[in-house]
Specification:
The structure holds two protein chains of two kinds.
Chain A: H1 10-24, H2 27-30, H3 53-64, H4 82-85, H5 88-96, H6 98-103, H7 107-115, H8 129-140, H9 148-200, H10 213-219, H11 221-244, H12 262-268, H13 273-276, H14 291-298, H15 315-329, E1 331-332, E2 337-338, E3 347-348, H16 361-367, H17 372-376, H18 393-402, H19 413-424, H20 432-436
Antiparallel strand pairs in A: 1-2
Chain B: H1 19-26, H2 35-39, H3 42-47, H4 52-70, E1 77-78, E2 94-101, E3 106-114, E4 117-123, H5 135-144, E5 154-155, E6 158-159, H6 162-179, E7 182-187, H7 193-205, E8 209-213, H8 220-230, E9 245-249, H9 263-268, E10 279-284, H10 289-293, E11 296-299, H11 302-317, H12 327-343, E12 347-351, H13 356-369, H14 387-399, E13 402-408, H15 412-415, H16 419-428, E14 431-436, H17 441-445, E15 448-451, E16 460-462, E17 468-472, H18 485-492, H19 499-510, H20 516-522, E18 524-526, H21 539-547, E19 555-561, H22 574-578, E20 586-587, E21 592-594, H23 596-601, E22 606-608, E23 614-623, E24 628-636, E25 644-649, E26 677-693, E27 709-711, H24 712-717, H25 720-723, E28 728-731, E29 734-737, E30 755-760, H26 769-778, H27 785-789, E31 798-804, H28 809-817, H29 822-833, E32 840-846, H30 855-859, E33 865-867, E34 873-875, H31 885-889, E35 896-897, E36 933-934, H32 940-953, H33 965-969, E37 975-979, H34 986-991, E38 996-997, E39 1009-1012, E40 1014-1016
Parallel strand pairs in B: 7-8, 7-13, 9-10, 9-12, 10-11, 13-14, 14-15, 19-25, 21-24, 27-40, 30-39
Antiparallel strand pairs in B: 2-3, 3-4, 5-6, 5-15, 16-17, 17-18, 19-26, 20-26, 21-25, 22-23, 23-24, 23-26, 28-29, 30-37, 31-32, 33-34, 35-36, 38-39
Helix pairs in contact in B: 5-26, 7-18, 8-13, 11-12, 11-13, 11-21, 13-21, 14-16
The chains are: A mainly alpha, B alpha/beta.
C-alpha cells in the first residue's frame, strides 16, 4: 500500500543531504522555464470596419466565456466564425436582448433558441454596437496554430533534469577516476620504495606473528561487554524506530481513480480550499466534494489550457482525466446535457484516523482559524495529494502545546480566558492550557 | 464459608437411579472423548508424509506470514455523493420532527439522522408536543434496521411484484362484491384522520366492506363506559399534575394503562415544592411501576379492588351500595376514599379493571369530585378497539361469510386468545392480506403478506388526542420494496397520487392558521381543543352490579404488559429483550410472579446459585376451561397480592425472530375475552429455570446511604441534617463530616465547565427510557441471555431497584442497633432479609458517578482512565489493556468489560452482527473491541458538540444546552444535566439543594452525579 521509511533512519538523512548538495548546483537550470508566449499575433487577422479584436478578447473573456467557447460548443454554441453565419445587425439585437427577439417571433432567433436546448442567453444591454463588433472581430480571427514556442518551453524543463543526470554521472565518474589513479599511484610508490630499499640493501624485517585483532577483541571481556551493550542498544533503537512507524502513513500518496491535481486547482487557479471542501467549516469531516461541485466549473472547462501541461503530464492526459469526471457525473459534453447515468468516484482515502480518535475540522478551521496547509502541507504544490503530517498522537499534542488559542472576537472564550489567564498569569493561552491534552477530548 | 447444602445443577441429579448421574460423577464428559479414533491408527500416523517437524515448519511460516501481512494497512475508500443534497453535510446531524403511533405506543419525536440514516430518537420538546418516548419508542429505531423485516411482498409464500399484489386484492374485492361476501378491514387503532377517511371512502365504494378495529391489548371496557356516558368512543386524557391526591385501583398509569404516557404529568406533582407534593394510593395485584411510585400501596386481588372501588364510590358520592370488602383492607381503603373526597377537585381516581361497570364508576367518582385532572377536553383517540366486534369477526370468519380479509398493523394469530379459531376462520377466507412489517404469525398464514415500511420510512398523519394533529414523516428512503397500506387503499379507491399528497390535501382544513411546511417542521399542530358534551349514566346500578361480581375461583391471574416488551410487536429488538424489567430486573424472559405466601404454598422458590445467576422453579398454569401453559418460570415477587399471580403478554413469539429472541411464553393464549383477570390454578412443575437477572432480590439491610428516603412530614418539619444525614468520620479524634476529609489535594474546578448530572429519586418512575437512549447514543452492545446471567451485561446506565421491608430506613437502623448478641443478630438479620409482603420500592438510576476523586483512576496501570477539568472521568479505550483493576476498585460497579468482541461476531447474533443493524451505530462514538473496559462517558461526545457549536457561533453556552442522552430522554424531570460553574444554571441550584446527596458519600469519592433524597408522602 505504501512506502514508509524509518523516520529515524540515518541513511535517509544522509541520502537527503547528498541529494541536497547535488541538486543545489542545478537549481539554476530550472529557472529557465519561460512562460508560454501567446503565439497568435493579436492584430494579424482580418478586422472588419476597424473593430479591435484585442478589446474584443477582453470583452469576450469578461462576458461570454462563461457559456461560450471559440472552438467548441459549451452551454451556448461555438463562436468562431459567427460573423459568417449571422448578419451583424441581427447579432447586435440578439446579444442585447435575445429573449425579446425570440418572443418577437424572429425565425432565426427561434431556431438558435431551439438548437441550444432552449437555454436563454442573458441580455447584455450594456454592450454597445462597437463592443459587439469588437467581440465579433475577435471571434473572426482564424484559429491559432498550436504555438511553436510551447515546444521550446517544454524543451527547457525537459532538458534540465537530463542535464543534471549527465553532470551527476560525469562528476561521479571523475571522482572515481581520481580515486583509482590515487590507488594506482600509492601502489606504484610502494613498489618503487621497496625496490629502492632492496637496491640499498636494507632488509625489511619479517613480520612477527601477532594475535589477530578479533582474537584480541574476544579476549578483552570489557570490550566485548561494551560492544554487546552498544549493539543491543543500537538494535533496540532501530527496532523501536521500526515499531513506531507501524501505522504511520506519512507521505502516503495512493493512485486515485481520477488524477486530480491540487497544483492546478489550488495552486495555478488559486481556488480557495474551502470552496470545494466546504464542510470543513461546519463539520467534523472536511468532505470530499460531491461531483456537482466539480461541475460548477467543469461544465465549461472541458479541457486544460496548454500552459497547464507539464513534462510529466501532457495536456491530452489532463483532458482525459476531465472526461473521466464527465463519465462519473454523467455529463454529455457534446449535447451539454446530463445523461443521468452516474458512476460515483471511489476515491482512496489518504488521511485515515483510527476510529478511536475524534477529530473535528470545524474546530480547527473555523474556530481556531488554522490554515489547511498547517496539517496538509503545501497542497497547492501537490500534483498528487499525499499525507503530509504523520498524524500521530505526538504530532497532535505538540501542536496543542504550542498553539495559542485564537480567542479574540469569540464570546465563548470571554469568561474562560479571564479565569485561566489569571490562573496561569499569562495573556495568551495554549490549547493545552484550555484542556486540549485531556484524553477524553479526542478519545471517545 | 462452607456449607453442607446440596448443590445441584439439574433435577436429573436428584434421581439416584439415573445412569447419567453416575456417569457424571466419575467423568467430566458424559461421552468418551474420541482420542483413540484420532491417534489409535499408528500405521497411518507413521506413514504420514507430514512429519512433526514439517508441521511445526508450516505453523511457523504461516504465523510469520500472517504477522507480516498484518502490518499492511487496509485501503479505505471514500465515495462522495454525485449530487449532494443541499441539507446533508457529512458529519453534521439533521433532525426531523415526526409523530409515531404503532397501535400501542405513541409519541412526538425528533429523529436524529446522520448521512441520511436515522440513528437516534429524541423527544420533540416544541410546545404542543405532549407525548414523549418510552423505552420501546426509543428502541424502535433499531426495528427499522431489523434484518428479519419483510423485504418485499409475498403471495402464497413466494416473492411477488406489487402489481401482482394489487391486482390480486382488486380482483378479490370484485369477486367478493359479485359473490356477496364480506370484505373486512381489520386494523389496529389508527388515530389517523387521513387513513380513517380513506377507509370511510373505501367502505363507501364497497357496501359489503366493514372496518373492525382491534387492539391487541384492549381498553374496550373503558371505551364502552366513556361511550355510554359521553357518546364518543374515546379515553380521558388525565392530567395528573393537577391532582394532589391520586387513587389508582388496579391502573398502572405509569406503565401502559390506556396507552400510558402519564409519567411526566404525574412526576410534576411528585417533587415537593413549598412543602407540598401529591399523595398517591395504589390498590393493585401485581407490583407495577405505579405501585412502586405510590406512597401507600395496598396489594389486593382484583375481586377486592372491585369492592374497594364501590366502597370509594359510596364514600365519595354518599351512596350506600352494600360491599363485601375484606376487613383488613377496610381501614386503609376508607382512609383513601375520605382523603379523596376531602381533596375534591384536586383528587382523581383511575382504574384498570376490565369491567365496564368499574369504568363507569371511575367516571362517576371523578364527576362527583369535579376533578381537575379528569377532563373531557382533548380526549385520547389512541384506543378504539371493540372486543365485541372482534369476536363477531372471528365468528363470521368461522361461518365462512368473510370473503376478503385485509389486515394492517395487527397480528391476531399471535395476539388473539382464541388464535385457533381465528386460524380456522382464516382458512375459510378466500383472500387474506396482511400488511405487515414482518413475516409474522399472521402474515405466514395469509394469502398475501404485504411488506409495509417502518414508520421512519412512511408518511402519515396522527391525532393522538382530539384537537391535536401531528405528521409522521419519513427520515430515510424505504430500505426495502415496501408499500404503505394507505397507498394500496388509495389505488383500491381508484384515486391517483400518493398518500403524501392525500395527507397534504386533507391537512389544509385541519391546520387552520398555520402552513403545511410549518406543521411539518414542528411535527405537531394544536388546533381548537373541544370538549365532549357532559353526560351521565345509571351509576348506582353499575355500582351494585360491580359489588355483586363474584371473585374468580382458584388463583387470580393478572395479565400485564412489560415495560420492555409491551404488546410484543418489537420482539426481535435485542435492546428491548436485554432491557431488564424495572421491577424484577429480569431480562430475556417472561415469567409468572407469585407472592411469598403462595410460593410457600406451592413450594415454588427462587435462589441465587453459585455463579450469581438467579434460578427459579417452573409452574404449570391451568385455566378454568382446561387450557394449560406449561413450564412457566416463577419469580417470587415481593408485594404480589396473595391469591394472585401475574404474567406478561408479548413474549413467546416464534415467527420472524432471530433464534436468540425466541424467549418466554405466549400469555395471549390466556387472555380470554380480553379480560386481564383470569381464573387459573397453579402447580409446580419439574426443573429449574435459569433467569438472566441483573439484581439479587435482597433488602437494603439498613444501608440507607445508598438510597436516602424520608417522609414529607419529616422533610417539612425537621432540619435537613436529620433526613439527609451527612456521614461522619473521625479525624484527629474528632468527628468531622466525611466530605471535609480528603486524602488528595483537590484540583481547581472553578474554571471552564464543570458538569453535574442530577437525579431526583422522587421523579424517577423507573420507566427505562434513559437506558435505551443510552444504548442508542453510545453504541452499547447487546450480550445475550447467558452473558447477562453471568453478570456481563453492558448497560452503561442501570436502574437499580431496591425494596425496603420497613416503612423507614430509620426503623431498620434502629433494629440493627438494638441487636444484642450473636443469636439476636442472626434472627434479626434473617427477619430483615425477608422481603416484606408489601415492600416499598425505590428506583435509582446508576451510571458512572464521574468521581472527582475516582478510585478507578488511581489503580489503572496504564493511565487509560483519567480525569478532566470538566468533571468527566475519561476512558481511553485504545489505551486500556483490560486489567479490570478499575472495575474492582469502583465502589459503584458501573464499569463494564468487553469479555468478547460483540460486533461482527456470529456468536453474538444481534444487531451489530449484520450490516443493516450496524446502520444504527452512532458515528461519533467508538465501537469498543474485546478486552476493553468501558463505562458511561457522561455523553462527552454531546457536551463537546455543544461546546463546539457555541464556539462556531461565537457565543457562550446557554443553560439547558448541555445534555446527555439520558437527561434528554427523561421527560419526567428526574435527570437534569448542566454546568455547575454557571451559577445561574438549573443544575447549580439542584446541586445546592438541601435534598442533594452523593452515593456512598462516606467513601469520599466526590462524585459529579448527584441524587436527591426521596420524599414519600405517607
Amino acid at each position: 500500500m505504501k512506502k514508509v521509511g524509518n523516520h529515524n533512519s540515518i541513511s535517509r538523512k544522509l541520502f537527503f543531504s547528498i541529494a541536497l548538495m547535488l541538486s543545489i548546483s542545478f537549481t539554476s537550470f530550472a529557472q529557465e522555464a519561460t512562460p508560454a508566449v501567446d503565439a497568435a499575433a493579436p492584430d494579424a487577422a482580418a478586422t472588419s470596419q476597424g473593430a479591435d479584436p484585442v478589446k474584443g478578447k477582453e470583452l469576450f473573456n469578461a462576458n461570454c466565456a462563461a457559456c461560450h467557447k471559440l472552438d467548441a460548443k459549451a452551454t451556448g454554441p461555438m463562436l468562431r466564425g459567427i460573423a459568417a453565419k449571422y448578419d451583424a445587425s441581427w447579432l447586435h439585437k440578439w446579444v442585447r436582448n435575445s429573449s425579446e427577439l425570440i418572443k418577437s417571433g424572429d425565425a432565426q432567433a427561434v431556431k438558435v433558441y431551439e438548437e441550444n436546448n432552449k437555454a436563454v442567453m442573458s441580455a447584455f444591454p450594456q454592450l454597445t454596437d462597437g463592443d459587439i463588433d469588437n467581440i465579433i472581430a475577435y471571434t473572426s480571427e482564424p484559429k491559432a496554430e498550436a504555438p511553436k514556442a510551447a515546444t521550446a518551453t517544454e524543451a527547457v524543463p525537459g532538458t534540465a533534469p537530463s542535464d543534471s543526470g549527465v553532470s551527476n554521472n560525469i562528476i561521479l565518474g571523475a571522482l572515481s577516476l581520481v580515486m583509482f589513479i590515487l590507488v594506482v599511484m600509492l601502489f606504484l610508490v610502494n613498489k618503487v620504495l621497496s625496490k629502492v630499499a632492496k637496491a640499498n640493501g636494507i632488509e625489511v624485517a619479517p613480520k612477527t606473528p601477532t594475535t589477530p585483532i578479533w582474537k584480541a577483541f574476544a579476549r578483552n571481556q570489557f570490550l566485548v561487554l561494551v560492544s554487546a551493550v552498544f549493539l543491543l542498544l543500537a538494535s533496540a533503537y532501530f527496532v523501536y524506530g521500526f515499531l513506531m512507524q507501524i501505522g504511520v502513513d506519512q507521505d502516503y500518496a495512493p493512485i486515485q481513480p481520477i488524477h486530480y491535481s491540487h497544483r492546478i486547482h489550488a495552486g495555478s487557479n488559486g481556488i480557495s480550499c474551502k470552496y470545494c471542501h466546504s464542510s470543513a467549516r461546519v463539520s467534523k469531516h472536511s468532505g470530499i466534494p460531491s461531483l456537482n461541485v466539480c461541475m460548477n466549473c467543469h461544465k465549461s472547462i472541458a479541457e486544460v489550457s496548454d500552459t497547464t501541461a507539464t513534462p510529466e503530464y501532457s495536456k491530452a492526459f489532463y483532458d482525459a482525466e476531465i472526461q473521466k469526471l464527465y463519465k462519473a457525473v454523467g455529463w454529455d459534453a457534446t449535447n451539454q446535457k446530463y445523461t443521468g447515468k452516474t458512476e460515483p468516484v471511489k476515491w482512496i482515502r489518504i488521511h485515515n484516523l483510527p476510529s478511536f480518535v475524534y477529530f473535528n475540522h470545524s474546530q480547527h478551521v473555523n474556530v481556531a482559524g488554522i490554515e489547511c496547509q498547517t496539517c496538509h502541507g503545501p497542497v497547492q504544490e501537490y500534483e498528487i495529494q499525499k499525507q503530509f503530517a504523520p498524524l500521530t498522537m505526538g504530532w497532535c499534542i505538540n501542536c496543542h502545546r504550542k498553539t495559542e488559542v485564537k480567542m479574540e472576537g469569540n464570546e465563548y472564550y470571554t469568561k474562560i480566558h479571564e479565569q485561566l489567564s489569571k490562573k496561569y498569569g499569562v495573556d495568551k493561552l495554549t490549547a493545552a492550557q484550555m484542556g486540549g491534552l485531556e484524553c477524553g477530548k479526542c478519545h471517545y | 464459608m462452607s456449607s453442607n447444602k446440596k448443590y445441584w445443577k439439574s433435577v436429573e441429579e436428584l434421581d439416584k437411579n439415573s445412569s447419567i448421574v453416575e456417569a457424571l460423577k466419575n467423568n467430566e464428559f458424559v461421552e468418551e472423548i474420541p482420542t483413540d479414533e484420532f491417534l489409535g491408527n499408528s500405521d497411518a500416523l507413521s506413514s504420514s508424509s507430514t512429519s512433526r517437524r514439517d508441521f511445526l515448519k508450516y505453523v511457523g511460516f504461516s504465523t510469520a506470514a500472517a504477522t507480516l501481512a498484518a502490518c499492511e494497512g487496509p485501503v479505505n475508500k471514500s465515495i462522495p455523493y454525485v449530487l449532494q443534497p443541499e441539507q446533508i453535510i457529512p458529519g453534521v446531524a439533521d433532525y426531523y420532527a415526526t409523530s409515531v403511533f404503532d397501535g400501542f405506543d405513541f409519541a412526538n419525536l425528533l429523529i436524529k439522522t446522520r448521512e441520511g440514516r436515522p440513528i437516534k430518537i429524541d423527544n420533540n420538546t416544541i410546545a404542543g408536543a405532549k407525548f414523549s418516548a418510552n423505552a420501546r419508542i426509543h428502541a424502535s429505531i433499531l426495528s427499522l434496521y431489523d434484518s428479519m423485516r419483510l423485504k418485499e411482498p409475498k403471495v402464497e409464500g413466494k416473492n411477488a411484484a406489487w402489481s401482482v399484489v394489487d391486482s390480486k386484492i382488486k380482483s378479490s374485492i370484485a369477486d367478493a362484491a359479485a359473490k356477496g361476501g364480506q370484505v373486512v378491514l381489520l386494523t389496529n387503532t389508527l388515530a389517523s384522520p387521513s387513513t380513517e377517511k380513506l377507509i370511510a371512502e373505501f367502505i363507501g365504494k364497497n357496501p359489503n366492506a366493514k372496518h373492525v378495529i382491534y387492539d391487541a391489548v384492549s381498553s374496550s371496557e373503558a371505551l364502552d363506559a366513556f361511550e355510554t356516558v359521553y357518546g364518543e368512543r374515546a379515553l380521558v386524557d388525565y392530567d395528573f399534575s393537577k391532582a394532589s391526591l391520586i387513587v389508582s385501583v388496579g391502573a398502572d398509569f405509569l406503565g401502559d394503562w390506556q396507552g400510558g404516557g402519564y409519567d411526566s404529568s404525574y412526576t410534576q406533582g411528585r417533587v415537593p415544592k413549598a412543602g407540598k407534593m401529591s399523595r398517591h394510593f395504589q390498590l393493585e395485584a401485581n407490583m407495577t411501576l405505579s405501585g412502586a411510585a405510590a406512597d401507600k400501596r395496598l396489594p389486593m386481588s382484583t375481586a377486592n379492588q372491585k369492592q374497594a372501588l364501590v366502597h370509594i364510590y359510596n364514600v365519595v358520592t354518599g351512596s350506600a351500595v352494600s360491599v363485601s370488602l375484606e376487613d383488613k383492607f377496610k381501614a386503609e381503603v376508607t382512609k383513601a376514599a375520605q382523603q379523596l373526597k376531602a381533596a375534591g377537585s384536586q383528587g382523581v381516581l383511575v382504574s384498570g379493571i376490565s369491567d365496564k361497570n368499574a369504568q363507569l364508576l371511575v367516571l362517576a367518582i371523578n364527576q362527583a369530585l369535579a376533578s381537575e385532572a379528569f377532563s373531557t377536553l382533548g380526549v385520547r383517540q389512541i384506543r378504539k378497539g371493540s372486543n365485541v366486534k372482534v369476536a363477531q369477526l372471528v365468528a363470521d370468519m368461522k361461518a365462512g361469510s368473510v370473503h376478503t380479509l385485509i389486515m394492517s398493523g395487527v397480528n391476531p394469530v399471535y395476539t388473539l386468545a382464541d388464535s385457533a379459531a381465528f386460524v380456522e376462520g382464516l382458512k375459510k377466507v378466500k383472500t387474506s392480506v396482511a400488511f405487515s412489517l414482518k413475516e409474522d404469525e399472521t402474515a405466514l398464514l395469509s394469502t398475501v403478506a404485504a411488506a409495509v415500511p417502518h414508520y421512519l420510512e412512511s408518511w402519515n398523519d396522527v391525532s393522538f388526542t382530539k384537537g391535536t394533529y401531528g405528521i409522521t414523516q419519513p427520515a430515510i428512503r424505504p430500505l426495502f420494496n415496501t408499500k404503505q397500506f394507505q397507498d394500496v387503499l388509495l389505488s383500491l379507491n381508484g384515486l391517483s397520487g400518493t398518500f403524501y399528497e392525500y395527507i397534504k390535501g386533507n391537512a389544509s382544513a385541519t391546520i387552520v392558521g398555520s402552513s403545511w411546511n410549518k406543521v411539518l417542521h414542528d411535527g405537531v399542530f394544536v388546533g381548537v381543543i373541544s370538549s365532549v358534551s357532559a353526560g351521565s349514566a345509571d351509576y348506582s346500578a353499575a355500582a351494585s352490579a360491580l359489588a355483586q361480581s363474584k371473585p374468580v375461583q382458584g388463583l387470580e391471574l393478572v395479565l400485564y404488559t412489560k415495560t420492555g416488551m409491551g404488546d410484543g410487536q418489537q420482539a426481535n429488538n435485542p435492546w428491548l429483550q436485554e432491557f431488564p424489567d424495572p421491577i424484577t430486573r429480569v431480562s430475556w424472559d417472561n415469567y409468572v410472579t407469585v407472592s411469598n405466601a403462595d410460593a410457600k404454598k406451592y413450594e415454588l422458590s427462587n435462589e441465587i446459585v453459585a455463579n450469581g445467576g438467579l434460578n427459579g422453579s417452573y409452574a404449570t398454569i391451568t385455566t378454568a376451561d382446561g387450557l394449560k401453559l406449561e413450564n412457566v418460570p416463577v419469580i417470587v415477587q415481593p408485594g404480589q397480592a396473595v391469591g394472585t399471580i401475574g404474567l406478561a403478554l408479548g413474549y413467546g413469539r416464534k415467527a420472524a425472530l432471530k433464534e436468540e429472541m425466541v424467549v418466554g411464553l405466549n400469555a395471549y393464549a390466556l387472555y380470554k375475552g380480553f379480560n386481564t383477570v383470569q381464573s387459573v390454578t397453579l402447580a409446580k412443575a419439574g426443573g429449574e429455570h435459569e433467569f438472566a437477572c441483573v439484581q439479587g432480590q435482597k433488602t437494603l439491610m439498613g444501608r440507607g446511604d445508598i438510597i436516602k428516603e424520608t417522609s414529607l412530614e419529616i422533610f417539612n418539619t425537621k432540619d435537613a441534617k436529620v433526613w439527609n444525614e451527612q456521614p461522619m468520620v473521625s479525624l484527629d479524634h474528632k468527628e468531622v463530616e466525611a466530605t471535609k476529609v480528603d486524602l488528595w489535594d483537590s484540583f481547581d474546578r472553578s474554571t471552564g465547565h464543570h458538569f453535574n448530572l442530577s437525579i431526583d429519586l422522587n421523579a424517577c418512575t423507573g420507566c427505562g427510557a434513559c437506558v435505551i437512549a443510552c444504548h442508542a447514543e453510545n453504541n452499547v452492545p447487546v450480550v445475550g441471555k447467558s452473558e447477562v446471567r453471568r453478570s456481563r451485561d453492558m448497560h452503561w446506565l442501570r436502574i437499580d431497584r431496591y425494596y425496603s421491608s420497613e416503612s423507614t430506613f430509620e426503623g431498620d437502623n434502629e433494629r440493627k442497633e438494638n441487636i444484642a448478641g450473636l443469636s439476636s443478630s442472626l434472627s434479626t438479620f434473617n427477619e430483615m432479609e425477608k422481603a416484606g409482603d408489601n415492600p416499598q420500592v425505590s428506583f435509582q438510576p446508576v451510571m458512572c458517578q464521574h468521581c472527582n476523586h475516582a478510585p478507578c483512576e488511581t489503580v489503572c496501570p496504564v493511565a487509560a482512565t483519567s480525569h478532566s477539568r470538566q468533571g468527566q472521568n475519561h476512558m481511553a479505550y485504545n489505551r486500556c489493556v483490560g486489567t479490570r483493576y478499575c472495575a474492582n476498585n469502583c465502589p459503584y460497579k458501573v464499569r463494564r468489560f468487553n469479555w468478547f468482541l460483540y460486533n461482527k461476531n456470529s456468536e453474538f447474533d444481534y444487531h451489530m452482527n449484520d450490516d443493516l443493524g450496524r446502520m444504527v451505530l452512532n458515528p461519533d462514538v467508538n465501537v469498543r473491541s474485546r478486552g476493553v473496559m468501558e463505562k458511561c462517558s457522561m455523553c462527552i461526545q454531546m457536551t463537546q458538540a455543544t461546546i463546539l457549536k457555541a464556539k462556531n457561533e461565537g457565543r457562550p453556552v446557554v443553560d439547558g444546552e448541555f445534555q446527555t442522552a439520558c437527561s434528554n430522554a427523561c421527560s419526567n424531570g428526574a435527570m437534569k444535566f448542566g454546568d455547575v460553574n454557571d451559577t445561574e444554571a438549573v443544575i447549580a441550584k439542584l446541586a445546592a439543594d438541601e435534598r442533594m446527596y452523593h452515593l456512598l458519600e462516606h467513601v469520599g469519592t466526590k462524585p459529579n452525579v448527584i441524587y436527591h433524597v426521596k420524599v414519600r408522602n405517607t
